[in-house]
UniProtKB/TrEMBL annotation:
SUPFAM superfamilies: 4Fe-4S ferredoxins (SSF54862), cAMP-binding domain-like (SSF51206)
Span of domain Cyclic nucleotide-binding: 68-205, 233-356
SMART domains, alphabetized: cNMP
Keywords, in A-Z order: 4Fe-4S, Iron, Iron-sulfur, Metal-binding, Repeat
CDD domains: CAP_ED (cd00038), DMSOR_beta_like (cd16367)
Domain 4Fe-4S ferredoxin-type: 392-411, 461-490
The protein's name: Putative ferredoxin-like protein YdhX
GO molecular function, one term: metal ion binding
Length: 551
């Protein structure tokens, strides 16, 4: 069964569940789900009247049927849904599959140059059109085409896989961390799975403590195996040694998962208070009892300076902290030469030093040594404003910029007359960090969206807004710590502002930079700059900005 697109001209804003994940999820299917675990063990009275359990299953889930070899989720993709296997068996890969094994092209293709030029010329040379025109909005994004493992038998023979049976949950790691999928899962035979979008998973965890404990346990276990396999420190360990390391690991989190407490003006806050407000992970001069492996989030590394702290580095996912100090000192008396604080949110693995020394040894060439090329004041600036979260930050060199606004005009021409960024923003030295979506490592804008309208594009990782399910609630815009999402008034083709028939207020939609993902030249703003003043860079690594500073 299909649903006709939502007509914007009618002025009715979609509400939660007005655009269900799948129209085919009937009351009959919901009743059948209520008779199987874990739903038959949930207390329906624990759910509020506004979000009943049956309503959640009907609107936030869908049944997925897959044939042998068909992929349910693919490593490297971004996803905001988890899966519960209902029937049949699936395989999760413990080794990466090649694009050829998945029957895919090596790289995703952008739109053709010809179509992009025609679109831009139509905008520039054609008759003026009002901005933010919507004649209609599809009820939901089109489903992705199916992907198949090309030779299931060959993959099972040549790759390490693990068996998934009915009742098992997978895909929760990407949902909880807003990170790429860490493994590929495909059907070994015919399977039936329940797909749960992240808002539904969030509410199931919120109102069912046992389900939350179960998901948390899966997250910890699956994340641990994935993280250890990806850490160079442990690549030479055999399975038995890796198991001993895994058994000794302790999990710890610091800060808030849905952090968004960035002060409007960090310079107005006392530097001592800025660090004190951050959750302390390690105190300088304390004995090194554990090595720290960063799973997600960011860590500020600082040293004492007078009564305060001087930032010397920041670290993100994959970093190993403490190994260098441990190996360069007498093991019995090794102490932390730095303090470590959580920047917003930090999720770490703690490995006891005696286990590290016994299993990994004292070979220091296994330990990555991180050294920042930026001065402390620049590091403080980036960390205090959480700019280190940006993967595609827009940075403008004001010494090169002539304020010609070619970047703004190019953006407007690419987006039907309305630019998706503001050429203003915090400035450090001669670099301005403009108000443009940074497509963050940890996009907290996605946390509160009631419908999942703001999401990562599965192919590119670009954070996008789906007009079909955006209800104009402004949650994402308010949640963005950087003010990089704008709420715009929707207009009909003739230019009139569209009003919500229920509230009488103008109909709003979230608008933000989409990195010109349909343009063959990439971001139009950067491509149009005649002086090479505007660049998009990854601030999650200090080396990117260091390279820009030194050019």
């Amino acid at each position: 069964m299909t649903t006709s697109p939502t007509t914007v001209a009618a002025g009715v804003a979609p509400q939660r569940w007005q655009a269900p994940l799948d129209d085919a999820m009937t009351d009959t299917l919901v009743e059948r789900l209520m008779r199987v675990a874990p739903f038959n063990q949930m207390d329906e009275t624990a759910f509020p009247a506004s979000i009943p359990l049956r309503g959640l299953l009907k609107n936030d889930t869908r049944i997925r049927r897959r044939a042998a070899g068909e992929v349910l989720m693919r490593e490297g993709d971004y996803g905001d849904t988890a899966f519960l296997l209902l029937d049949g068996q699936a395989r999760v890969t413990l080794e990466s599959l090649t694009a050829a094994e998945l029957g895919l092209a090596e790289t995703p293709r952008r739109a053709g140059l010809g179509s992009a030029i025609r679109r831009t010329l139509a905008t520039v040379l054609g008759p003026a059109k009002p901005p933010e025109v919507r004649d209609r909005i599809d009820a939901r994004a089109a489903d992705q085409r199916s992907v198949f493992v090309q030779d299931v038998s060959a993959v099972l023979d040549s790759k390490r896989t693990a068996l998934l049976s009915p009742g098992e949950v997978f895909g929760e790691l990407a949902v909880l961390t807003r990170a790429p999928r860490t493994a590929t899962v495909f059907a070994e035979g015919s399977v039936v799975a329940l797909e749960i979008r992240w808002q539904g998973l969030r509410d199931l965890m919120r109102f069912t403590p046992a389900w939350r404990a179960h998901i948390d346990r899966l997250y910890r276990d699956n994340s641990l195996r994935v993280h250890l396999r990806a850490t160079p420190l442990f690549t030479s360990l055999d399975e038995q040694a890796l198991e001993r390391v895994a058994s000794a690991i302790e999990f710890a989190t610091f800060g808030s998962f849905d952090w968004r407490d960035l002060p409007p003006d960090p310079t107005a806050v006392d530097p001592l208070d800025r660090v004190r407000r951050e959750a302390q992970v390690v105190k300088q001069d304390d004995p090194i009892e554990y090595l720290l492996l960063v799973r997600s989030g960011f860590a500020r590394v600082s040293v004492a300076q007078g009564e305060g702290q001087r930032t010397i580095a920041y670290h993100g996912k994959g970093s190993v902290l403490g190994a260098e100090a441990l190996l360069s000192a007498d093991n019995a008396s090794a102490r932390w030469p730095v303090s470590i604080h959580a920047v917003g949110y930090l999720d770490v693995l703690r490995l006891p030093t005696d286990v590290f020394l016994a299993e990994v040894g004292t070979t220091s060439d296994k330990v990555p040594v991180a050294d920042s090329e930026l001065p402390a004041r620049t590091l403080d600036y980036l960390v205090d404003r959480r700019l280190i979260n940006g993967v595609e930050a827009m940075v403008i060199d004001l010494d090169r910029c002539t304020r010609c606004d070619d970047c703004v005009r190019a953006c407007a021409a690419t987006h039907d007359g309305n630019p998706r960024f503001i050429r203003q923003g915090p400035t450090h030295d001669h670099f301005q960090f403009a108000h443009a979506c940074m497509h963050c490592v940890d996009p907290v804008c996605m946390i509160g969206c009631p419908t999942g309208a703001i999401h990562r594009d599965p192919a590119t990782g670009v954070v996008r807004v789906n007009d079909a399910t955006c209800v104009g609630c402004s949650v994402c815009a308010n949640a963005c710590p950087y003010n990089n999402i704008q709420m715009v008034e929707v207009r009909a083709p003739e230019g009139a502002i569209v009003f919500d028939q229920v509230t009488g207020q103008p109909l709003l939609r979230a608008a933000k930079c989409d990195l010109c993902s349909d343009q063959p030249t990439g971001p139009a703003c950067q491509h149009a700059c005649p002086h090479d003043a505007l660049v998009r860079i990854d601030l999650s690594s200090p080396h990117s900005l260091a390279s820009l500073v030194s050019r």
